Amino acid sequence: MKQLLLFNLFLFLGATLFAQDKMLVHRPDGTATFQISESDSVYFSADHSIIYFKIAGNLTDYYVSEIDSITFDVSLDSTVYVTYDGSTVSVINPLSDAGVAVETDGADVVIHSTSAIKNINYVLSGTTGDGMFKIYSDERYNLLLNGVQITNNDGPAINIQSGKHARINLVAGTASTLADGPDYAAPAVDENGEEEGQSATFFSEGELIFTGSGSLTINSFGSDQHGLRSDDYIQVDEGSITITSAEKDGMHGKEGVYINGGTVLITSSGDGIDGDEGVADITGGSVTVHSVEDDVKAVKSDGPITISGGTVQITVAGKQSKGIDSDVEINLSGGDVNISTTGGVVLEASGQGYDPSYCSAINCNGDVNISGGYLNIMSTGTAGRGISCDGNLYVDGGEITITASGNGAKYTNENGVDDAYHGSCINVDGDFVFNSGAITASNSGSGGKGISTDGGFVIGDGSSTPVLGLTTTGARITITSGGPGPGSQGDYDESKTIKSDGPVTINSGLVTISSADDGIKSDEAITMNGGSVSINQSVEGVEAPNITMNGGEISIYASDDGFNATYGNGGEQNDGSLLAINGGYVHISASGGDAMDSNGNISISGGTIVVHGPQSSPEVGMDVNGSCLISGGFLVISGTNSNMTEGASNSSTQYSLLLRTNSAIPANTLFHLEDSNGNELVTFAPRRNYYSIIFSSSQLANGATYKLYTGGTHSGQQLNGLYTGGSYSGGTLKKTFTISNIVTNVSF
After folding, report:
1. 349 — alpha (psi -120 to 50), left (phi > 0) or beta?
2. Residue 471 contacts residue 439 (beta carbons within 8 Å)
3. pLDDT digits over 292-336, tens only?
4. What is the pTM of this model?
5. HSE (CB half, 13 Å, CA atoms) of 186?
6. Domains of the chain with CATH codes
């Protein structure tokens, strides 16, 4: 009887095979489940005691006596198959009685799903040169692109008119392609009388989530259309998406674009990736964007842009275009970001002249925050900029390399006045706070800047060690030329490494500078509390109205002034500026200017100061329009025989010496000073010919007698010309003198 029942059961199975999903064989020790779609055959042994199931090529057998029952999963098959074949299409729809209606016209397919079933699968395969797929759905669903090739000459290849969640599965091992034509037909009108959206080769009203390891290529030829667009958000988790062309944006998510994995490659005439009113968020995967037109953005969002992982490769060729652009905020905390820009500046008519609009690798109307990752920027276009933000720039980690080479030029600004535009590796309208990480930036363009801020610039927090390396080599831009008469000055835009309208504060870190003009310039103040600064080449090393050295180490090589405290008004009057050295270590080598220059006052209360001044008049080792007050510290300065050579002020509280000779002493000839007991106070080897030495130390005492020697040798350690340890010998005694005033002048 059991064999007869099973036989009748399999007659039923044969009649209903494709209406079921699974066959369940129930036995006392458990239930075996088989996919009916994989069932090849079912048959009995000769004596009907054993039943055989051939499933997916594998043979399984059971004793009939051990089978309690066989049942079938009566759930509906939730997969709709759409197969294109040239100008026709075939559809297998097992859900026609469950609310899924399919309309076809040639190779055009329209799905209307009112089914309550969630996650219905729509599998697209085959090829058509004149077809499309369109879907309306009340529930979320899955769209499987199984090597499908769709070209729609008058509209989107895929048009999703459902606001529900759509998971787009790029089937493993397959390559799908979507294309449109240049001219779209008029859009359909919905029940409210409004035109349906159709603004992309692949368009969706709802969110799109891409999964699967297959690939999708979008060839967008529609005039004024995007490549891939969602009126919600786009999320890429897996797969490879290539958008070869788009008249507008390559990938546009109105509520944001999220890339967590996979590979995205975009070439477009509009923006590459546009997060619109949402965000652009990259956490993983590989993203490559080629922007080729003027005034476009490779990665753009009206909201924040965040990159925390993955690899991002951006090339920007258009004038005034941007690599990464946000109206609100840009956050970089991880990943590997490489941006190359070749686009130049555009002079936009404004007022009585023009306003420059630059091509920038990173541009933000708000703040830029960098806390990790790798950022490499190469800018070769005219006056190109690396990082440009209207807000503040915060760097708390990561490695940043910026190389710029585009030249600046003269132009007429909006006030009708001659001006100059130039490129900057980093340009900040607000404050720049650099607490940790590493920045290497070089600019070879004329007038090009390393770092330019309208606000303040802070390096280090006192405990961190940020690393900053800056180089500028560009020529200056002549705005107005100076006349032939003495003292006549022109107006120039020079290639400075650090230019700040606000204060510059160095608390810690390692700073290395090579500048075609000023090393560090501030319109307000420069304060060094710690860290190490090496200005290996400059015209003027450090310039600001107020320069304060509280700690740390600074070494300056300058062709003009080393320290220059000035408001920039010129003249010999005291302009109120101040150079204050309260601690730390200062080394200056100035070949053609005043090594320490203040158009106001100089105050020295501590620290070690070693200065190699110029060898030719009228420049001097120390020049001060006001007074030089010394109350502490160690100071040795070599200089010229200029009439402008002067020592400290008599109101100082620490003793000092101004020692002068009428005959030049050759460069590297030792200057040695010792007390009457032979104790060394200083042994110094100036780099240039010298006529004068300014010296001050807490070891100098009133009424004490000292001996001055030149020449000879020293067995100690030498740092920047100053010897310590060891012993001095072989010099020529030039003078023996006694201190009787707070400032003692000595001729030898």
Report:
1. beta
2. no
3. 999 999 999 999 999 999 999 999 999 999 999 999 999 999 999
4. 0.88
5. 5
6. 2-72 (2.30.30.100), 603-747 (no CATH)
